[in-house]
Predict the 3D structure of the following.
Amino acid sequence: MRARLNARAGTCLLAMVLGVWGGGAWAGTPGARTVVTLAFDDGLEEQRQVLDMLSASGLKATFFIISGRVGQSSYMNLDDLRRLAAAGHDIEGHTLQHAELATLTPENQRLEICEDRLRLLSWGFSPTTLAFPFGSNDAVVNQTAAACGYNSARDVRGLMDTCGSCPAAETIPPLDPYEIRTPATVTRDDGLEQLQAWVTTTEAAGGGWVVVIFHFVEPDCTRRTYCVTPDVLRAFMGWLSQRAPMGTEVRTMQDVLGGAAQPAVHPVPQAPTDALKNPSLEDDANGDGVPDCWQLGPAHGGVVRAERSAEAHSGAWSYRLERVDASGGVASLQVLRDDGTCAPAVTPGRGSRVSVWYRASTPLHLEAAVKGADGTWKVWDRGPSLPPTEVWTEASWELPIALPADAFGLSVGVALEGVGWALVDDFGLADAAVPAASLVLDAPTGGEDFVVGEEVEVRWSTLGDVRTLDVAYLTEASATWVPVATSVENTGRLIWRVPDVPSREALLRVASTADETVSGVSAPFRILAEATQPGIAEPLPEEPPAEEVLDDGQMEGASGGCGGCGGAGTGQLFLAVAGGLFALSRSRARRRLEAPPTRGGHRAPHPCSSLGPGCCPHRPRHSARWQQGAPPGGEEDGQSGD
């Protein structure tokens, strides 16, 4: 017990020093309440049916995945995990091979924990919490979890029936974020009454947090100790969904804990260099289906496929991305946003040029993100659309502004814009000239619903000397930019009264009056004829014909494409410019649409300014492998229900 108290004190201090524990915005709201988290461990194939149960009850859950067993017999595969993430459920870590961590050497502990998280990140998930297999942890294990980038860790003891003096519930925030306490793991002997009792006992004690842990979900639990029947689980979820009037809520781990996902950390970190690692996508040492030092885009839904291909531009392998459903997420491949082992080190104020060889049946674009001095990654910018081509073609993009003054790392990649496939190979990164001026539209960020007649604040940031600007808007029904204001003083903000042009896809642009190639364009937003009410559909114009849809919008999360999207919070990028310091405020939620560069690195006018109505990019606000190995856990192979 004393060792556990010492471990708790040490990891609480470590969490404060690292700054990874800040609590969630939801967790910080006042008022006593009971919070229940439904946790499903191991990623067993029997848990596939849980998705339908959760959807029927309207609840969200957290799935702790043994990443080294994904795709093996008796375990869920990567497509299963993507469907869970698309439905809004948490995907978290449960080590690489479900090892008893406290018995391992520090090196093997780091391998189990860091490699586990590294794989989940490379597949496009954002794990922030680790579940200790068998509840096996001590101070060293807790500190390793933090060092590998986890913001918190979960035990399998500490509440209710696990000891005589244990409290009824965990506190919010938890007493120790690296040893979150729980009741005992659910077994076949725990019926509906026991599950309900854990909740009602917490309610009677004044509230708190109860994490209920499940493993196997089978109609016949006689062969499994750590098992619940579908009928009991379904009844428990239905009962929980009715307890909101009593102040009881069901939340995921991320809901309660909050905090952004930290960069990837390698088991054996290496010194950063300024070169791309594995640029020809040949190496896949861990066999997870993603090239070493690369990652897939955020797993936020849609039918997206990604795999190695022998149709290479050079060497043995290229990488194939495919998007088969227009309503789904975006398929993308990016340099792993890590601690510097893979992501190239960069020099602030220096321009960069990224290139790729590709074949594609749909438009795609290059994109970039930067890591700041605080260690977090911020989506930065995206390049112009690249046209489909049947033959291998090299495309390049000069990043439009100098690297920010606080940039220490760079991640580049490619994303599909429409339904179809692309083969990519042989990426390149080189220095490039820095343009004299640039405009960045900070608001609208994209994805908003504005009402006709509403006054909206338009904000932008400037690099270089831009004295006056023109502001204009565009909808899918217009062929050219419609002026809002011309030759206005560059104050960084303007109030725009939304015009009477209801639209599913509207854009705003700010451009230098002297040189309209220096411009910034928002990500798409909607214009509504009137404010929406629950259950009433928005009055919007008809969708354009399918043949007018050129490409897709942006993924949600911290991955890039359209210059940013879906995460919470705002990052600051500071650029040192000759003659002074310009502060460039960049929203992590911002998505951008830019025109292609012309000679000299300047921006060309937006393509919609000169083409007909059928040529305007249509960008909905949606976001967007396999292992072999051992049989599943349970008492049959030594698993102890965690």
